[in-house]
Specification:
6-stranded antiparallel sheet, 6-stranded mixed sheet, elongated, alpha/beta, single chain, 15 strands
């Protein structure tokens, strides 16, 4: 839901702010006053293409800012989009840089621009199945969830069958290669633990004599006569004799005593380490030969030990499949066939659920179309089962809305309807029927009332009022019957002069009465004003 829209330097707008209400907000004004500029700003805010030509004459850049809220995210988001006169633009969401694509796929998906000549979600055939499913309820939702799981399992089983088939059909040359690789690797019998242990032990065995000399020399320097322990013992003895005269020396004495203990322990550990050193020449040769075998395998199948073991597993699988390919093939084929059977059953159930919901949806939309004075026109739902190769996540069928202009006329795809007014009213009827199931929270209608008057105008106003109970509705209108239904009414006007300026302000009280009177008869005569007051009173009653 749009909480606030702030526009700067867009077309004839220098600075304007729109604060729509959660229900119905009407925007009115004379033709050419600049209502289209306001809609252009909203398009920028939801991720549509920018045009440097929209920058106000004499300005460096246009800026559009908006604050959005939703039931799921009460903290909301603040969006800012800047487009320079040179065509370069910037987008930020909550103060962080973002792309136009992120804007369109995120907040843009919550706003539907329903203008006569706008790109409309309803005319995108891919959305028809989503609209039907969202409206249809629990049975379709459960069937579609089961379909998704079945499709995923069927695809996985098909991939496994393809993999097994490919492996089983390897050429004799490929099989010989796999057998050679398996034999060569198994001759070494590698493992991660063995290789890591060898990496630790081999350097110690290769440099055993150097280690022994160094450790023995260190142990002697610490523990033999005249070594560090003797020196520390002599220092400790001297200090203990002096303690009787000055107790402040006690901490130093304790420090030296602790150091003496640590050094004696270190000398003992060094002697123990030296005793464990094994200078077995035969063991050294064995480890060197085994490391050489590992390095040879790693050069061929590495670089790491994990890569080597993966190559071994691959070769073993090729050999096993060649030896008993029939068993593996039959198992994979049975799994694929079972998955396809389950998928077919899920497809039947999903189609049956949709077939039950489709006429009910069609009837509900048609009733709203009748309210909109569309005569005997109907909306129908066509469903066609697709070939298995064309089954997708949304289902096994192509679902499309058809429009029948009259009882004796053929139904045609909704996207091919020529009349913009018909498109707008069919869309409005669908939106009312969708109600809370519609993922879009804000609907912006432009020229939905084109060519409408009389009883149709009253019906249109009533339907928009109904729709505003489930959505935030912003409508640009020329009909007083629509504007009077709004909880919030904005007037767009244009100043005179060499560089006109579009102004936007909320109208209430007598100012709103005057605007409604102008919309009714083009003037503010006493008769028109009285009629406007009467309309407002009837809505408030």
């Amino acid at each position: 839901m749009i909480d606030e829209l702030h526009v700067t330097d867009v077309a004839l707008i220098r600075d304007a702010t729109l604060t729509p209400v959660p229900g119905l907000t009407a925007i009115t004004g004379e033709t050419g006053a600049g209502k289209s500029a306001l809609l252009s700003a909203l398009k920028l805010l939801i991720g549509e293409r920018a045009d440097a030509g929209s920058v106000r004459e004499g300005s460096d850049a246009l800026v559009v800012e908006g604050r959005f809220y939703s039931d799921d995210d009460p903290d909301g988001h603040v969006v800012r989009r800047r487009v320079g006169a040179d065509g370069r633009g910037r987008v930020s969401i909550d103060g962080s840089m973002a792309s136009v694509r992120e804007l369109a796929s995120g907040l843009g998906a919550t706003v539907d621009l329903c203008g006569q000549h706008e790109h409309q979600r309803l005319l995108a055939v891919g959305t028809h199945v989503e609209i039907l499913d969202a409206w249809a309820g629990a049975r379709v939702a459960q069937a579609r969830a089961a379909w998704g799981e079945a499709l995923s399992r069927a695809r996985e089983a098909a991939r496994e069958l393809e993999r097994v088939t490919e492996l089983a059909s390897q050429s004799a040359e490929r099989l010989d290669e796999a057998s050679f690789v398996l034999q060569r690797i198994d001759a070494v019998n590698p493992s991660v633990q063995d290789y890591e242990q060898l990496e630790r032990d081999l350097p110690r065995a290769e440099h055993g004599e150097t280690l022994l000399r160094s450790v023995a020399g260190a142990a002697a320097a610490l523990g033999e006569d005249g070594g560090a322990t003797d020196a520390l013992g002599e220092a400790l003895s001297e200090l203990e004799g002096a303690l009787r005269y000055d107790s402040e020396l006690r901490p130093l004495s304790e420090q030296i005593r602790s150091a003496l203990i640590d050094i004696e322990d270190a000398a003992s550990e060094l002697r123990s380490y030296a005793s464990r050193l094994d200078l077995d020449e035969d063991e050294l040769i064995r480890m060197q030969e085994r490391m050489g075998a590992y390095q040879g395998l790693l050069r061929s199948y590495g670089p790491g030990i994990e890569d080597l073991l993966a190559r071994r597993a691959q070769a073993a699988e090729i050999v096993a499949l060649s030896q008993d390919s029939g068993v593996h093939m039959r198992k994979a084929r049975r799994a694929a066939e079972a998955a396809e059977k389950a998928l077919s059953a899920a497809a039947d159930e999903l189609e049956a659920a949709r077939a039950e919901a489709a006429p009910l949806f069609s009837q509900a939309v048609t009733r709203q179309m009748e309210r909109l004075e569309m005569g005997s026109a109907r909306l129908e739902v066509a469903s066609e089962r697709l070939p298995r190769s064309q089954w997708v996540a949304t289902g096994p069928s192509h679902v499309e809305f058809l429009y029948r202009p009259g009882a004796g006329m053929a139904a045609r795809p909704l996207r091919r309807i020529a009349s913009g007014g018909e498109v707008s009213r069919v869309m409005l009827a669908c939106k009312v029927v969708q109600g809370a199931s519609d993922a879009v929270s804000t609907l912006v209608f432009d020229e939905v009332d084109a060519g409408v008057g009389g009883a149709t105008a009253l019906a249109l106003a009533a339907v928009l009022a109904d729709l505003a109970t489930t959505h935030q509705v912003i409508v640009v209108t020329h009909l007083a019957q629509v504007a009077v239904q709004a909880q919030c009414h904005y007037l767009v006007s244009k100043s005179a002069g060499e560089l006109p300026e579009t102004q936007l302000r909320e109208v209430t009280g007598e100012e709103r009465v005057a605007e409604l009177a102008r919309m009714l008869s083009g003037d503010t005569s006493e008769t028109s004003l009285a009629h406007a007051r009467e309309m407002l009173a009837s809505v408030s009653a």
